[in-house]
Design brief:
The protein is an alpha/beta fold and 759 residues long. It has 23 helices and 30 strands. It has a 7-stranded parallel beta sheet, with helices on both faces. Strands 16-26-25-17-24-23 form a 6-stranded parallel beta sheet, with helices on both faces. The structure holds zinc ion (2 copies).
Length: 759
């Protein structure tokens, strides 16, 4: 018998996002996920029941609790497993349950309003006399009487009845109306009907059975489908890594699996890394599944999202295709979640709750005893290592469909270019091949790393890069103070005048933008039409598509851009792909820099020669001997993996450890530095606690963040690293509590992230 309920109050209002405990009256048949009316400081407010217990939580004994007043919805508004998911999310990403719940169940978006409820009958004799005694008050009651359920928001009421606030106060004092606080959902969302399941035979409109399949699976693809299905039949939660080389036909495998899952009465989610890819993929799936497919992502309007949610809950839509946030789709019979390109950083959310879609998918399939399928040609180190250690299963596809072959890759040593007197950012080889393409009317794509906000110091004669002796990460050059710094441990040194390795004077910081590349091409080939695709030219996703469409229509011969070009789309006329400087990714101040480089180069190389015209790839670098570059050029994932995993183990980086990063922000630099040092001291003090002391936990920093100043805020960071995530969390919690007891911490904003993907 549950006696206490934990109620999340005013869930839409961030300032009040707190849970309180209430007594459950005996006559109330309450369930988790129901909305209720509860008393809160002389007010009545709406809340959502997020937990029910027999006993009070520790430390709450002896407190008296108020009872819940009423149940608002007869059915649970939010399914209990999604509430459990929200709790899990709050705990693992270290944010509030309310924030998590908003993410899991975005329809809670709404606002708090004061409402007026009519308490008397308009036919009451006393009320009738008002007609002559106080016509204004009577007009108000009449307006209320006409309202739906005899209630209306105060704002609308005053306007519609054209009465003063004084008159309203009078009505309240007389006990004829009541003022209450309500939670109002935006959009026209009503709580859904109890979930009903369409029968096995009722497959909905537009369903074509498996016999209509318009594709044939190869033996390799069919084997993967069979294996995943038999894993599904085991009925225990599982994660499967599908490691298939580019062009091995993973999408057909997804489609066949979804067909089978639907046949067995289940539902499925297919995630892709970018919103801009969803419609493309959905079109492909709609040819077979028709109207059962729905697209879900954060870019939808609230009304579209509401409609989608209702259709999904009612069982009209059974295949959800979307970006990261679609992992929360409330499909009633979810059995399979597929993450295509699972290694992609876009699966990690930057804002609270800072979740990774892969972790959420695994948690959801733990709840439902279903399967998570991770697909990639360049799996994340985490996933591949988990497969190697037997924690998850792995299936492989090694043959490319059709006659397509991987393009030849040439690595150009930029140190040689300097020796030959070429100071351009284009090697002679790239210039020559570019000219050939222009003469033949074929297209070229030129890649640069994301708009560079970090610069490193490199010797242009021997390729030596200055890096931190503690962390093995490239040091970042800061124009302020003209020093180089490590963003993990704050090791500092001055940039050398001559290369410590070869003595050259050509050692300097490195930073190139897409604009610079554009200018240099215009210098070399003044008449050539070109397009630029980067953060500046694609503020909106529309701008993104417009530029790519122009390029597809061959309105330009050269496209210069960042890695946003690397995903998805095929351009049949592209026969040359150039990477201007692999070093930019390779020397990011991040232990994942080499993994990123390998993934990017592999993806980029896959862009060339997608049709009958053979393609070519040129990678320019000052580190031609680096294995991430060499392995990518040879499409050798395994070779790369074993080298990289050894480095991670030696340096105690994930997946061998977990990292929690705390970012401190303040408008004043001295305040944030002091705050960071104070927090560091508070954390180090916690090491004396025997629970944490001998658990091989490391505190890194404080150090300035890579973006040391953003939106008028100075930013410093501290990271803690250790093998057990639960211990790290409670260790951090303790340290942060101690930190906030100190008045000097006032005004400092903390931003906590578990296992961040960026530095
Ligand atoms: Zn050198
Ligand atoms: Zn360091």
């Amino acid at each position: 018998m549950f006696r206490y309920a934990e109620v999340l109050v005013d869930v839409a209002n961030r300032r009040l996002d707190q849970s309180y405990h209430y007594l459950i009256p005996e006559n109330l048949s309450l369930n988790i996920g129901m909305r209720v009316l509860v008393p809160l400081q002389n007010r009545k407010v709406q809340g959502l029941v997020v937990n029910m217990t027999e006993e009070l939580p520790e430390g709450m004994e002896g407190i008296t609790f108020k009872p819940i007043l009423e149940i608002i919805d007869e059915n649970s508004l939010v399914p209990p497993d999604l509430i459990e998911l929200a709790h899990w999310l709050a705990q693992t990403t270290i944010c509030s349950v309310a924030q998590s719940l908003h993410t899991v169940w975005p329809l809670l978006n709404g606002k708090i309003e004061d409402w007026i409820v009519l308490l008397v009958s308009i036919k009451d004799a006393d009320v009738q006399t008002l007609q002559w005694l106080d016509p204004e008050a009577f007009r108000g009651l009449k307006v209320l009487n006409r309202a739906r359920k005899k209630a209306i928001s105060v704002k609308v009421f005053l306007k519609r009845a054209e009465i003063s606030e004084g008159t309203l106060e009078k009505l309240i004092k007389q006990g004829w109306v009541r003022k209450e606080t309500r939670f109002v959902t935006t959009g026209d969302y009503a709580s859904p009907d109890p979930i009903t399941r369409p029968g096995q035979n009722n497959r909905g409109k537009g369903y074509s059975s498996r016999t209509d399949r318009i594709y044939d699976l190869t033996e390799e693809q069919a084997a993967v489908v069979r294996d995943v299905l038999s894993i599904l039949e085991e009925g225990s939660p599982q994660t499967v890594l599908l490691y298939g080389v580019t062009g091995s036909g993973k999408t057909d495998v997804y489609r066949e699996l979804i067909t089978q899952v639907l046949d067995q009465g289940g539902d499925a989610i297919l995630l892709v890394p970018e919103i801009s890819l969803t419609s493309q993929v959905a079109r492909y799936f709609e040819t077979q599944f028709g109207e059962q497919v729905i697209i879900l992502h954060s870019g939808l309007r609230q009304s579209e999202k509401t409609k989608a949610w209702q259709d999904i809950l009612a069982g009209h839509k059974r295949i959800v295709i979307g970006a990261r946030s679609a992992v929360f789709a409330p499909l009633p019979h979810l059995r399979l979640i597929i993450l295509d390109e699972e290694h992609d950083g876009a699966y990690k959310q930057d804002e609270n709750p800072k979740y990774h879609a892969r972790d959420v998918a695994r948690k959801r399939m733990d709840q439902r005893k279903g399967v998570v399928l991770l697909g990639s040609a360049t799996p994340s180190l985490e996933a591949y290592a988990a497969a190697q250690s037997g924690k998850i299963r792995m299936l492989t596809m090694t043959t490319r469909i059709g006659a397509s072959v991987l393009p030849p890759v040439e690595i150009v040593d930029m140190r040689d270019e300097l020796r030959q007197g070429n100071r351009s950012i284009f090697s002679l080889s790239l210039q020559q091949k570019l000219r050939e393409r222009i003469d033949r009317g074929e297209q070229t794509m030129l890649f640069l790393n994301r708009r560079g906000y970090s610069t490193f110091v490199v010797c242009r004669e021997c390729g030596y890069v200055v890096s931190c002796s503690n962390c093995d990460i490239a040091l970042t050059y800061h124009t302020q103070g003209q020093a180089m710094r490590c963003h993990y441990c704050d090791h500092k040194e001055l940039p050398p005048h001559t290369c410590p390795k070869c003595g050259s004077r050509y050692i300097r910081f490195f930073g190139q933008g897409t604009q610079r590349v554009e200018e240099e091409i215009q210098g070399l080939f003044p008449e050539v039409p070109m397009l630029r695709l980067d953060f500046d030219t694609t503020r909106s996703s529309e701008g993104h598509n417009r530029i790519l469409d122009k390029f597809r229509r061959q309105e330009a011969l050269v496209l210069v851009g960042t890695q946003m070009m690397a995903k998805g789309l095929d351009f049949p006329n592209v026969t040359l792909v150039g990477v201007i400087a692999a070093d930019q990714t390779l020397n990011m101040p991040d232990f994942r820099a080499r993994e990123r480089t390998f993934q990017l180069l592999t993806q980029v190389a896959g862009r060339a020669g997608r049709s009958t015209k053979p393609g070519e790839v040129i990678i320019q670098t000052y580190s031609p001997q680096d294995s991430a570059v060499m392995r990518a050029a040879h499409h050798d994932f395994q070779g790369f993996f074993w080298e990289e995993i050894r480095y991670r183990r030696e340096r105690k980086y994930p997946p061998y450890t977990h990292i929690i990063r705390v970012l401190l922000m303040h408008e004043k630099e001295d305040r944030v530095i002091k705050g960071a040092n104070d927090l560091g001291a508070c954390l180090r003090q916690g090491m004396q606690d025997p629970r944490f002391g001998n658990n091989e936990m490391d505190i890194l920093g404080p150090a300035p963040a890579v973006l040391s100043r953003l939106r008028n805020q100075w930013r410093w960071q501290i990271s803690i690293k250790g093998t057990r995530q639960d211990l790290l969390r409670s260790f951090l919690h303790q340290g942060v509590q101690r930190f906030f007891k100190n008045p000097a911490s006032g005004g400092i904003i903390l931003n906590i992230e578990v296992n961040p993907l960026t530095s």
